[in-house]
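From the pipeline queue, job 12 of 40. The input is one protein chain; the requested action is below.

Action: predict structure.
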Amino acid sequence: MTTVRQRRGGRVTEGSEDQSSEEKNVKSDGKVLSDHTGGKLWNILSLTLGGIVAIGLGLLTSFYVATLHENDLWFSNIKEVEREISFRTECGLYYSYYKQMIQASTIQQGLHGLVYDNKTESVRTINILERMNVYQEVFLSILYRILPIQQYLEPVYFYIYTLFGLQAVYVFALYVTSWLLSGTWLSGLLAACWYITNRIDTTRVEFTIPLRENWALPFFAIQIAAITYLLRTHLQPAQERLTLLAVFIATFLFSLTWQFNQFMMLIQALALFILDCFDMLPTAKVIWLYIIQISGLLLVCVLQFFNSMILGSLLISFNASVLIARTIQKNLKKGNLFNRLGKLILHVLLVSSLTLLVNKFIKKSLNLESDEHIFKFLKAKFGFGSTRDFDANLYLCEEAFGLLPLNTFSRLSDTLLFYVYIFSLFPLTVAALVVAFRNLSGSNQIQEKAEEYTITLKPDAAYNLIHTVLFGCLALSTMRMKYLWTSHMCVFASFGLCSTEVWRLILECVHLYTSQRTQVIKYSIPIITLLYISYKFWPGIMDELSELREFYDPDTVELMNWIKSNTPNTAVFAGSMQLLAGVKLCTGRTLTNHPHYEDKHLRERTKQIYQIYAKRSPEDVYRILRSFGTDYVILEDSICYERRHSRGCRLRDLLDTANGHVPKFHVLLDINKKQTILRQSV
């Protein structure tokens, strides 16, 4: 046997060297074979055990949220109308299409009723499949009809159990992502436990079941897990192709189930763009991800009958602009530091300009105005001028679209999640800056100095770092989007706590690094954290599961029963968006407006209907209502005497402002009581 080995001592005779080499190779080959077999068995055992734990935690989460839902409403015992009322606001609207498909005499008739719908918006026929992301309701209703389960399971239970089952998929995907990043399934276990113990801030599925995000976020988590695996080095071509297919399927399903998909994927595309500019990701894989995003969105556009809002999305314009700019600037990643910085600035300007031009051209060509309310809202939210626009102010006054409350961080800190997240974020951010500077400079000397940091920022870790930073900024600015960040926060924090690279970086900074010490810390700290979480929160979870409540809303139940008993099936109802969704679900009556707000015509119609609460003459209100074929109007005390919002944010205040009826306040001084009194002049 011939080997090549490094000289270590003085000269030896040729015969003795060959004999020694042969003996050592026999021993080393036996040892390597034994180590390889033992390592392979251990990997199989670890993979099996980790997979079982992942599936178990997913099912446990599904059971947990299902039990909370049942305990909170006593869902199994209440009447059908009460069950339907529990699907508040837009949740009730989406579920009504599932109910409509179930009650249709045939699947074809149900689909025809959705494509040519004249009950969701009075005096107007709309295509529900084009306007709304309800393919999941269509698929689920068809599945319920063809499966032999009608005698054993009510349609509503088939629906809600599917959503609770998706929570198992969600937790499984978070678990796998953390496992892929850290290399140990202990990290996935910690991520899943944090997701469960921080349930208030990671999900709201148990009380907003049909909400679009509850359908979409599990697929988004699968996509992130697939991207994390794709960005690993040394993948075989077959593995890479299968992973790209998984990314495409997850992207498509995510896009199909949520109308805000384009904005979430735009942030994702920005993350890829930033990392690619600093040469921290393989360019070929980044290009594939751009193409997958575009193709997935275009496929959804076809299924939604060429929905114009998708065609005019910033995501398609941005990704197309990036691909065009790359063909123009072919030598973007060559040259010294200043040369590359100049090219990078030019590249960013080129992509930004192209994005705006392409998007403007598409919207102008197709006469698109569906998403203009979002940009008006963003403009007003970030202080680029005040606005009297009713739609923008409606969003600005809602707490869900405000800044993330500070008490969120105190809740996340109680489980140690926020502390560990910051602990993981800081060293990895420093490492990212060092690596980015090294890549831009291209200096061998700097590369040697930064070599110890590169191991802490592999491409998959780099992507998840920028992902969590960008979605963190989104959550801080808009509370409703926090669920995209907090779930990934669980993944990122658990990865940092179980990562060899992070602990090595920290220990080397304090000159305490040894391989054995790193391994001990890597496993002991997460185990201690898990024990702490179990000790502190297990009793609370048990108490929560044992707490029993009951749904109680007699006024709304009475209203729905009255409508069904005293009005014709063709009656048209006007009122608030939130309540009318329940009217459609519970009674099947025709509506004037509804909560799915992503249509300019509907927004204008809603503003007109809401004039019933504004300072308008009875003749004007009557004329407006009759123009939409209204037969009945539902007036709500909660709006007339609104106290939930402060002065200026009440619905009647927003309408008066939009109508130019700005309220004035006179300050009067009561000399006897010596206090200032505000009196509104009408």
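Job complete. The two ends are 102 Å apart (CA to CA).
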